[in-house]
Amino acid sequence: MTSVLYDAQGPRAKRRNVLYTVVFLVALAALLWWVYKSLDDKGQLDWEKWKPFVGSEAWTTYILPGLKNTLIAAALSMVIALPLGAVFGIARLSDHAWIRVPAAVVVEFFRAIPVLILMIFGNALFAQYSNVTSDDRPLYAVVTGLVLYNASVLAEIVRAGILALPKGQTEAAHAIGLRKTQTMTSILLPQAVTAMLPAIVSQLVVIVKDTALGGAILTFPELLAAVSPMSSYYGANVIASFTVVAVIYVVLNFSLTSFASWLEQRLRRGKKSTGAVLAPAAVGGTESAGTVV
Amino acid sequence: MFDFLEGYDLLGAFWVTVQLTLLSAAGSLVWGTLLAAMRVGPVPLMRGFGTVYVNVVRNIPLTVIILFASLGLSQTLNINLGAQAFDTINFRLAVLGLVAYTSAFVCEAIRSGINTVPVGQAEAARALGLSFTQVLTLVVLPQAFRSVVGPLTNVLIALTKNTTVAAAIGVAEAALLMKKMIENEAELLLISAVFAFGFVCLTLPTGLILGWVGKKVAVKR
Fold first, then answer.
1. SS3 letters for chain A?
2. Using the beta-carbon criterion (under 8 Å), do B64 and A25 form an inter-chain contact?
3. Cα B69 to chain center, whole Å?
4. For residue B158, what is the enclosing H or E element?
5. Whole-model pTM?
6. pLDDT category of residue A273 using cuts at 50, 70 and 90
7. Residue A212: what pLDDT?
8. Which residue of A has its CA nearest to B123?
9. pLDDT in tens, A170-208
10. To which CATH superfamily is domain A59-288 assigned?
């Protein structure tokens, strides 16, 4: 393995690297041993605490219904936020200042506010001004918060996607006599959508992660909210429950991330496209806003 | 019009938000830089550790990490980070969770910054006989940091917003106060506007100032 940052290794460097490896390994082993010890002291490694996850009951009663709600909220948010985001993204590119400026203000405003604040606001809004039942309210609130935030993030993705297209596309469209709307709908958008796909897929990761907020604060019965009833039912297996839930999140999000980068590479290789590809936001999490371009 | 604010420590809550942000930012900058150094370094085990850490942590919701810190670390394993009072414990756990989570993104930002440094810089440094640590700390990282001010600003803004997650374990920051106020007072729209304004005040200047700094320090190539 060579890199620009270090030379091909000679005998001394190899010996040094072995030494570093051993030291790091010892430190890592000490850490793992300490984790094991503290878990074992509290009896968190007892088979009794992990056994429920081998059987089906824990999955059908707690985990799968939670996962289902997580996925429902994420899918709903994405489906609603995408067209909204497209509208605002295109509005920000308008030639008319009275469309462009308000759209920019709305987008920047919702990007500057934490999703949690939007969710709490949505929850109270539905409680006071609508007749949504209290059972449905957390879902509505979570989806509202996620839509408001992610629509503005997606608006930026759409805008960047359209701006990333070569200028010749617009010029050629105008040259053959298309109007502005026609240029947008039949020339720019179709190409921009392919360029945006990786970024949109990785935004889905952000949405999935943010649904967990609803579970922690708004009693939305999603995957994370399944932990506390589950761990109290199976005798305080907090560590085991958290581990299982975290692994599910990692598997779900990691496959989405991998899918996004596969899409990105495929689009970059493709000969038919204009070569404009928006990388999935290098910085994910709630933070993808603004890292997209 | 704003009498509903009486009896609530609005500034105090936002001060906790600021404290959470600054402490976590400092912590994740250090740990994230170390992770980035591991990921580009010559020792395969460290590279592997860095990669696994970033890919695992990035894909877990911050809420899960912070709740785990409270329910798992503190309440199950009695790891209280040297604090006695309930408030202090939760505050420190929240900082720990935020650092663990944010450093994965800091690491990726810095790694992308390392990629913007021209190959010739590292080659020239190696030709002078500098070791990996010297190449990284004397030549590559100083240039990389100057080019990642923009991405790191985005991480910082996201971190500011992410501190609201600490409300999940009862840290008395802005989002928790907002929830309490909405439950007790009638002015839903006004309360929300006040808190939204507070966060806009925190995030917009950060973006503007650091954006200016980023342009100032960027290496002109």
1. CCECCECCCCHHHHHHHHHHHHHHHHHHHHHHHHHHHHHHHCCCCCHHHHHHHCCCHHHHHHHHHHHHHHHHHHHHHHHHHHHHHHHHHHHCCCCCHHHHHHHHHHHHHHHHCCHHHHHHHHHHHHHHHCCCCCCCHHHHHHHHHHHHHHHHHHHHHHHHHHHCCCHHHHHHHHHCCCCHHHHHHHHHHHHHHHHHHHHHHHHHHHHHHHHHHHHHHCCCCCCHHHHHHHHHHCCCCHHHHHHHHHHHHHHHHHHHHHHHHHHHHHHHHCCCCCCCCCCCCCCCHHHHCCCCC
2. no
3. 16
4. helix B149-162
5. 0.90
6. low
7. 93
8. A4
9. 999 999 999 999 999 999 998 888 889 889 998 999 999
10. MetI-like (1.10.3720.10)
- Report whether B100 contacts B82 (CB < 8 A): no
- Out of B40, B112, B204, name the one closest to residue A5 (CB): B40
Helix (H, G, I), strand (E, B) or coil at B81: coil
| A245: number of Cβ within 10 Å | 27
- Give the residue from chain A lying closest to B17, CA to CA: A114
**Domains of chain B by start residue, with CATH:** 9-217 (1.10.3720.10)
Could you tell me how many CB contacts below 8 A there are between chain A and chain B?
Answer: 192
Q: Tell me if B58 sits within 8 A of B102, measured CB to CB.
A: no
Instruction: Judge: A283–B136 Cβ closer than 8 Å, yes or no.
Output: no
B154 touches A289 (CB < 8 A)? yes
Domain ranges, ordered by start, for chain A = 59-288
